[in-house]
TrEMBL record:
Ranges for domain Kinesin motor: 4-333
Record region (Disordered): 421-446
Protein name: Kinesin motor domain-containing protein
Family recorded in the similarity comment: Belongs to the TRAFAC class myosin-kinesin ATPase superfamily. Kinesin family.
Length: 680
């Protein structure tokens, strides 16, 4: 039912000793107006409300006249809100919390709720309380200091609520009062200037009253199965004074900005609501935490009472005017409160709806998203594994190639070492032969290769140029084949350049053609010595080279074995990644199957939902038809009744006329009989 918000103004006792010099606020019944001192009211500054309480008024009276109905209605299942609005030090906290001698609205409400529910014997109650503070647009839990900066959420089941806020289940008023006291302690925690904070923060004490009819076995399902849930907010707002008056910078300015925001939005909301239904297109509840929490209390499904506290002192006239204007606007707001009753069927339907919603969300949202993400991840992993595998294969190929090259090199080196070894042993032999000869005379003008062993008939040899110097000794290896390798030749001759022009076959020369006696018998001894010396030096060099090559060979062998180890490891790694790729593929397949199954499930659920809704429409139609039939029947019955009545009236008159005819007949017969008797 639509009803106006209940608005009252309360003037607190004057604190200052000064008596007014220009104007004063005059209270007459439910009207407050600004008067000139000893004079007339100032026009335009007279306001009427549901109640105006003067300085002598107690909290008890305020509660009785303004809030009690809201509290009682809350017990009966209506949402309720009572809040105090006004500038700092105008008496908001005094009104809400009260003093030792005169408890405030919150205490009285708590006591009243418990007293009232004790008197209701046919319902059982569950009461939960919470206490929060909005400070700098952040919601903090006053029952649990650790719960800070709580978010506001909205759900089908709970409506608008503060997520994570501690709710205490309570059984008696004392328990609530104790909790409130502990909440106040939390509020003081860490605060150096409590007053500064309290004037800048909004506190909301909230009671959730749930009740259910006790089953009396009367069979009255509609009342005993109904669950009522109502929310009661008791709010002590921050000071409504303009920020300029606080005159502070820094942190306080920031605080001020936020209070301004919350109260400004509250003002906007109230403005818009007071403009009437036509202009209530968009109400900016979402613009501040305060209005969002109080959304149902303002223009919604709630019974609301506002107490606007004002200070009587002349210095506060401007602020008081502001408060009274706010109160006037609030007075124009219409709320539409109704009992929040959930019938069992409705609750069932609601729960089913929620479950379907939940399932849908799971299917459409989180579950499938999770699956899709997992599939994506797996796909990525698979790609990664494949790339890795390709890389590893490439590396392996590379390794194989370099391994082959190395082996080839090693083989070459081995060959060289063998060649050198044989060369060295030949050299040794020849040098020892040379040394055995005391004075070998060798005069060779064409070429000089004294260490020639057996040479096949068609072997090539290079002829020393006639113009060149005496060449270095150039021994040939044992395994020297038919064709002398130019490189080896070059190396062995230590830079000797073959005169390729004079290359000739020496078929005629045989081993026997180099007998010692034939070898340049006229060569000088010195020359021979020199040659021997050269030979020795060369031999040393070759030995050194051999040692070096052997060392290199060993190194290469080591590197090779290490590489073989690495290749083995790589192979193992490749196997492993192949395995994990395989298992990923399997998991991917499984997930895709699951996803498919879920999709099917969702489709069938959607099918069921649509069938159910079809059924519901069909049933509703049927019900309507039956109702129509019933109405027709009722109408017919009524018509019949009317007809019966008319018939009985007609019947009665007929009866009467019949009776009179009967009487007449009787008298006539009597008469006739008498006549007959006379005749006979
Ligand atoms: P607010 O919460 O609006 O800042 P308070 O409730 O703290 O203001 O009131 C400021 C001072 O005035 C307090 O000391 C309080 O006790 C006193 N006061 C306020 N209203 C009344 C009242 N109606 N009767 C007696 N004292 C009051
Ligand atoms: Mg206060």
């Amino acid at each position: 039912m639509a009803e106006k918000i209940c608005v009252a103004v309360r003037v607190r006792p004057s604190i200052s000793e000064e008596s007014p010099s220009g104007t004063f606020w005059k209270i007459e019944d439910s009207r407050i107006s600004l008067h000139k001192l000893h004079g007339t009211p100032i026009s335009g500054l007279s306001y009427a409300f549901d109640h105006v309480f003067d300085e002598s008024c107690s909290n008890s009276k305020v509660y009785e006249l303004l809030t009690k109905d809201v509290i009682h209605a809350a017990v009966d299942g209506f949402n309720g809100t009572a809040f105090a609005y006004g500038q700092t030090s105008s008496g908001k906290t005094y009104t809400m919390n009260g003093s030792l001698n005169d408890p405030g609205i919150i205490h009285r409400a708590v006591n009243d709720v418990f007293q009232k529910i004790q008197m209701i014997s046919d319902r059982e109650f569950l009461i939960r309380v919470s206490y929060m503070e909005i400070y700098n647009e952040e919601i903090n839990d006053l029952f649990a200091v650790e719960n800070q900066k709580l978010p506001i959420h909205e759900s089908l089941e709970r409506g608008i609520f503060v997520a994570g806020l501690r709710e205490e289940i309570v059984n008696n008023a004392e328990q609530v009062i104790k909790l409130l006291e502990s909440g106040e302690v939390n509020r003081h925690f860490g605060e150096t200037n409590m007053n500064a904070r309290s004037s800048r923060s909004h506190t909301i004490f909230r009671m959730v009253i749930e009740s259910k009819g006790i089953d009396t076995g009367s069979g009255d399902y509609s009342s005993s199965d109904a669950i009522r849930v109502s929310i009661l907010n008791l709010v002590d707002l921050a000071g409504s004074e303009r920020i300029a008056k606080t005159g502070a910078g820094g942190v306080r300015l920031k605080e001020g900005k936020y209070i301004n925001k919350s109260l400004m939005v509250l003002g906007n909301v109230i403005n818009k609501l007071s403009n009437g239904a036509k202009q209530r297109a968009h109400i900016p509840y979402r613009d501040s935490k305060l209005t969002r929490i109080l959304q149902t209390a303002l223009g919604g499904n709630a019974k609301t009472s506002i107490i606007c506290t004002v200070a009587p002192e002349e210095v506060h006239v401007e602020e008081t005017k502001g408060t009274l204007q706010f109160a006037s606007r609030a007075k124009r707001i219409t709320n539409c409160a109704q009992v929040n009753e959930i019938l069992t069927d409705a609750a069932l339907l609601k729960r089913q709806q929620l479950e379907i919603e939940d399932l849908r969300r799971k299917l459409q949202g989180s579950r499938s998203e999770v699956l899709e993400q997992e599939i994506l991840k797996l796909r990525n992993d698979m790609l990664k594994y494949e790339l890795e595998r390709e890389k590893l294969e490439m590396e392996l190929e590379e390794e194989r190639r370099s391994h082959k090259e190395r082996e080839q090199r090693i083989r070459d080196q081995q060959l060289k070492i063998e060649n050198l070894s044989s060369l060295v042993s030949d050299g040794d032999r020849s040098s020892s032969q040379d040394s055995m000869k005391e004075s070998p005379k060798d005069e060779c003008n064409d070429f000089k290769t004294p260490c020639f062993k057996e040479t096949s008939n068609n072997a090539f040899v290079a002829k020393r140029s006639n113009y060149s110097e005496l060449p270095d000794f150039s021994p040939l290896p044992d395994s020297f084949s038919n064709v002398a390798d130019e490189d080896t030749w070059f190396k062995m001759n230590k830079g000797y350049i073959a005169d390729l022009d004079s290359l000739q076959t020496t078929p005629a020369r045989k081993v026997q053609s180099f007998p010692p006696q034939d070898i340049t018998p006229d060569c000088s001894n010195d020359n021979y010595k020199l040659e021997l010396q050269n030979l020795k030096t060369q031999l040393e060099l070759v030995i050194k080279e051999k040692v070096e090559l052997q060392r290199k060979h060993e190194e290469e062998v080591q590197i090779n074995s290490r590489l073989m180890g690495e290749i083995c490891e790589l192979k193992q790694e490749l196997d492993l990644s192949n395995n994990s790729l395989e298992s990923s593929k399997q998991r991917y397949g499984n997930l895709e199957r699951e996803f498919q199954k879920l999709k099917e499930e969702r489709d069938s659920l959607l099918q069921t939902v649509s069938e159910s809704s079809k059924n519901i429409t069909f049933l509703t139609d049927q019900k309507e038809n039956i109702l129509k039939d019933l109405n027709c029947e009722v109408q017919r019955r009524k018509d019949l009744e009317v007809e019966i009545k008319q018939f009985s009236v007609a019947f009665a008159s007929r009866q009467r006329s019949l009776a009179s005819i009967h009487g007449e007949f009787k008298s006539k017969i009597e008469k006739l009989r008498a006549e007959n008797l006379v005749r006979y």
